[in-house]
Amino acid sequence: MHARLALAIWPVGSVRGAPYPCGQTRGVTSMTTLSQFSDAMRALVDKTAQRVVAINPGTRNAASGILWRAGLIVTAEEALGDDERFELTMPDGMAVAATLAGRDPSTDIALLRVEGDAGAPLELLKSASAVKAGHLAIAVGRGTNGEIAASGIVQECGESWRSWAGGLIDRRILLDLALGRRSHGGAVVDAAGDLIGLAAFAPRHRALVIPAATVDRIAEQLAAKGSIARGYLGVGLHPLRRKRGEGAVVVSLDEDGPAKRAGIFVGDTLTAWNGAPIHGVHDVFRKLGPDTVGSTVTLDVTRANQQTRVEVVVGERPHR
């Protein structure tokens, strides 16, 4: 059976007890349709699970990952903790070792390199731009006893956005389904079995999708370099709310960081970035994307009730 789902709806007779197509009764038709839908859903999960692995970190709960390319697994960075070596359970049940090839906390994507044959990758057949609110979504992970599945709908689908750490996510896709911890980092597919993206968690344990386009873009860079360049000021910030506007107060400085070299001091309040108001700490970090490394930005600063401007050359965030 093809994994594409189709739920047939028969017309309802105008007279109670009227015959249905092919002589079926209402009850038989309903049960047959539900059984076909159930079988198609199972076939879709089975097809997807052939490209999903279980990840067993040494210090955290187990998670899932997607076979991205030969020998490479993509998963949720947050699920890995500080481990760099992992044991994977492959779709055929075989246990293999893997090492960390790269990670990007700002997009919650990590790449693992498998020691040996990892099987065929799950093709990135569909762009997340084709997904709309109301579309069916199925999350597929892998646990100790085999595949794990949860189904629901796309609850929200918005434009591109930046995470609190400045990572660019191609679409904002939230799901109305209960995502288990073991499915974290697994695959989310649509009714045709095409990959929507990688299963992750938003605040308050809501199910979030990192779109396939974002996964592909970041995994390419991780495979080549092992990390993603991010902007860095070398400041510790705390939100500051005042009667007239908002800002971020500097509470610590990296002694060798860009801000310290530019003349920023502990106690300064950052109020604007290239003329755009800074409303809080997240505003600053969201602006520190890859494109800012090496660029010069103008920060509006309040110091001892005096306004000043400081030009800072953005550095590259140290890799952990």
TrEMBL record:
GO molecular-function terms, A-Z: serine-type endopeptidase activity
Hydrolase among keywords: yes
Gene3D superfamilies attached to this UniProt entry: 2.30.42.10, 2.40.10.120
GO terms of biological process kind: proteolysis
InterPro entries: Chloro_Bact_Ser_Proteases, PDZ, PDZ_sf, Peptidase_S1_PA, Peptidase_S1C
Highest taxon above the source species: Bacteria
Residue ranges occupied by any PDZ domain in the UniProt entry: 217-281
Keywords in alphabetical order: Hydrolase, Protease
Identification of the protein by name: PDZ domain-containing protein
Species whose genome carries this gene: Pseudorhodoplanes sinuspersici
